[in-house]
Write a structure and sequence with these properties.
Number of helices: 8
Structural class: alpha+beta
Helix content: 25-40%
Largest sheet: 8 strands, antiparallel
Shape: globular
Strand order of the largest sheet: 5-4-3-2-9-8-7-6
Strand content: 25-35%
Distance between the termini: 44 Å
Length: 255
C-alpha cells in the first residue's frame, strides 16, 4: 500500500472519509496517465492483479479503465473503504451507448451515501460524484449523476445542455466479468484504443495530452496545441511529460 500511495504522490494514511477519498482520486488522476501504448504496440493486457500492479505501480506506467479503476479499488479497500466494481456503457459519437462492460468504474459507499468514483476515463470529473444528482465542478467542467429508470447517467454540462458520458448501474461486478470486453478493446477495429494514440494526464490547472500528431496543453481553460514534425519529437514529448518509464513509443507513422 505504501508503494502505491507513493506512486500517486501521497504518504499520509487517514481515516476513510469523503475528503480523503477526494484527495486520493485527484492525486491518482494527476500522477497516473490514461494511455493505450501497450495496445498499439501489441502488448496484451491481461486482467491479472499482479500484472496490473507491476505495470502501473512498480513500473510507473499508465493504463485504461480496467487497469486503473481495478487497482484503485484495491487501494481504497486496503484503506478501509467499501467499494464495488461496476459496469458502464459509454456514449458513442452517434449518441448511442456501447455494451455492458464497455467501461469499468467504481461505487464507493460512505455511511448512507453512494459515490461514483472514476480514475480511468480520461478527461472527466476529478471528485467523487454523489448519486443524488448534486452538481460538482472542477477545472475540467461541471458534472452530475442523473438517476434514470433502471440505471444512472454520468452527465457533463455543455452550455445549457447536459450531455451523458456513460450509463451505469450499481450492480457489483467481478474483475473476470470484464475479461471479454477488455480483450475486445485491445483487438477490435471498432475500438478507439486500436485506432489512435491516447496518452493524457490531469494537472492541477488542466491537462496534458499526446495524440498521434499533437501535444495539447490545457491550462486554466486555455488550450495550446503543438504539432509534431516527427515520431522522434512525439517520443520525446511522451517521455518529457509522462516519464522515462514509457520507453519506446515508435508507433503510428506521422505523415
Amino acid at each position: 500500500m505504501k508503494t502505491y500511495l507513493s506512486r500517486i504522490g501521497m504518504t499520509e494514511i487517514r481515516k476513510p472519509t469523503l475528503s480523503f477519498l477526494a484527495e486520493l482520486q485527484h492525486q491518482h488522476l494527476c500522477h497516473v496517465p490514461f494511455e493505450n501504448l501497450d495496445i498499439l504496440q501489441g502488448v496484451e493486457i491481461r486482467l491479472i492483479p499482479e500484472e496490473l500492479y507491476g505495470k502501473v505501480v512498480q513500473r510507473q506506467r499508465g493504463g485504461f479503465c480496467y487497469e486503473l479503476n481495478y487497482l484503485f479499488s484495491r487501494l481504497l479497500q486496503a484503506l478501509g473503504y467499501s467499494v464495488s466494481l461496476i459496469s458502464a456503457r459509454v456514449r458513442k459519437s452517434d449518441g448511442t451507448f456501447g455494451p455492458e462492460f464497455d467501461h469499468m468504474a467504481l461505487i464507493v459507499r460512505l455511511q448512507e451515501e453512494h459515490y461514483l468514483v472514476d480514475v480511468g476515463f480520461g478527461d472527466s470529473c476529478r471528485r467523487p460524484l454523489p448519486l443524488t444528482g448534486k452538481k460538482c465542478a472542477d477545472v475540467s467542467g461541471t458534472y452530475r449523476i442523473k438517476p434514470r429508470t433502471g440505471d444512472y447517467a454520468l452527465e457533463k454540462r455543455k452550455g445549457k445542455r447536459w450531455i451523458p458520458k456513460y450509463l451505469f448501474t450499481t450492480t457489483p461486478r467481478r474483475l473476470a466479468d470484464f475479461d471479454m470486453m477488455c480483450s475486445h478493446q485491445q483487438s477490435s477495429l471498432t475500438s478507439v484504443f486500436t485506432k489512435k494514440l491516447i496518452c493524457t494526464i490531469a494537472t492541477p490547472e488542466g491537462r496534458i495530452s499526446v495524440s498521434d500528431k499533437h501535444l495539447t496543453i490545457t491550462k486554466n481553460g486555455k488550450q495550446k496545441k503543438v504539432p509534431f514534425s516527427s515520431r522522434k519529437e512525439r517520443e520525446q514529448a511522451i517521455r518529457r511529460y509522462f516519464g522515462k518509464h514509457f520507453g519506446n513509443t515508435s508507433i503510428h507513422t506521422i505523415e
